[in-house]
Amino acid sequence: MKIQNKIALIFTALSAGIILALSVFVYFFASESIATSFFHRLEVRSDIVGHAALQDNKSLTSIYYDIKERHLGSLPYEKHRILPGQPDEATKKRLALPSSFYEPFQNDIPARFFNHDTSYVVLRVARENRQVMVVSSALDTYGMQEMTNLKNLLLIGFFIAMVFVFTFGKLFSNEIFKPIRRIIRNVKGINAHNLHQRLVVEPTDDDVEALSRTFNDMLDRLEVTFEMQNNFVSNASHEFRTPLTVVSGEAELGMSMPGLPDAAKESFLNIYKEVEKLEHLTNSMLSLAQTGFDGKKEQWEEVRIDELILSVKEAADRIIPENQVAIDFDNLPDDECKLTVNGNLALLKAAFSNIVLNSCKYSDNKPVTVKISADNKYVIVEITDQGIGIPDREIGQIFVPFFRASNTAPYKGYGIGLPLTHNIIRMHQGKADVHSRVGEGTRFTTYLPFKYF
Prior knowledge:
Layout: H1 3-53, H2 58-72, E1 79-84, H3 89-95, H4 103-106, E2 111-115, E3 118-127, E4 130-139, H5 141-176, H6 178-188, H7 207-255, H8 262-292, E5 301-304, H9 305-319, E6 325-328, E7 340-343, H10 345-362, E8 368-374, E9 378-384, H11 417-427, E10 431-437, E11 441-449
Helix pairs in contact: 1-2, 1-5, 7-8, 8-11, 9-10, 10-11
C-alpha cells in the first residue's frame, strides 16, 4: 500500500475515533438530560396529585386536577397511586419495585426508577399532620423518539463525516507527496547514459530538500564509480591484449624455428594454447565489465530477432559443425513489429550465441530447439536442449560470474557466458527464465520488449 494511502486511512481512523467518542458523549448527555427533564415533569404531577389527595374540600381537589390537566396535560400511560405516608412491606411487594428505590424516599428525597421504557417516581407529600406517598409512572414516548432521531442523525453524520474526512485526507496526502512523486519521476529518468543530471533542489528547508540533496550526493558517487569502470574497460582492453598478443606471437615464432626439439615444440604449443584461453577469458571479462555499466547505447538500432537467431545459427555451424540446432518458426507473430527490438546487435548476438553454444556443449550436440514467439509486450525466444541439466539448488546462482554448476566439471568453461548474457538481456529491459532437470535438459527463455525505444 502506498504511504499516502496509509496516511489517508490513518487520518480517517483517528478522526473516526474522535467523532465516535464525541457522538457517544452527546448521545448519553442528551439521554441523561431528557430523562432528568421527564422525571422533573413527572414529579410536578405527583406533587399536584398528592396535594389534591390531601384536600378535605372536594372543590379544591377538583381545582388541583383541573390545573394539572389544563396547564400540564397528560403524559403517555400516566398512572398515579396514592398510598399511606409510610409504605409497609406488603405495599412494597405489591408495587414490585426494587428496595433501593425507596432509599431516597426515606430521606424525603423523591425516588426515581426507570424500567422497560417506563419512568417511576415516588414522592412524599405532607400537609399539616397528614402525608401520603404518591407513586407515579409514565412513558416518555417523545423523549424516546427524540433519542432515536438523535441516534440516526449521529450515525448519518458520522458516515458522511468519514466520507469527507477520507476525501480531504486523500487530497491532503496527495498534495503532501507531490514533491516526492516529482523526485521519483526525475530519478527514473536518470540512468548510466545521463548520470550527469541532478535533481532540482528547492530551498524549502524541509525533508524533501534533504532527500533531494541526498539523491544528488549518491548520483555524484555513482558517476565517479561509472567513470572509473568505463576508464578501466578502455585501458584494460589495450593493456591486457598487448602482452598477450606478444606472448602468442613469440610462441608461434618459437614453434616455427627449424631443428627445435619436440619437447620444446610441445612446450611452445602449450604456451600458445594457454595464451589463447587467457585471451578468451580476458575478452569475456572485459565484455562482462562493459555490459555492467550499460554499454554504448548510441550504437543501438532496430534488430529483427528472427534474423538475429539465423545469424546465431550460422555462427554455431562454423564453431560446432556437428550441432543439431533447429529453429522453430511456427509461432512467429503476424505483425513484424513484434519481432523488432531496439538494441545493440553485437551484444544481442553474443547473448544468444552463448546460450545456443552452451546448449550444444552441455548436451553433447544432441538436438537443440530455438522457438520464437511473441505476446502483447515481449518477443520471446525459447532455447531447449536435452543436456545434463542444472541441479535445482544451483539454478539461482548460474548468473553469478565465475560460477559453474557442480556437474559441469568435464566440460571446458569459465562461468562468464551466462552472467554476460544476463547483463545484456537486462540492459535491453528484458528478463530471462531458466527451467532445468538434471539428466533431462534445460529450457532458457528470454523476453525482450519489442516496443522499447
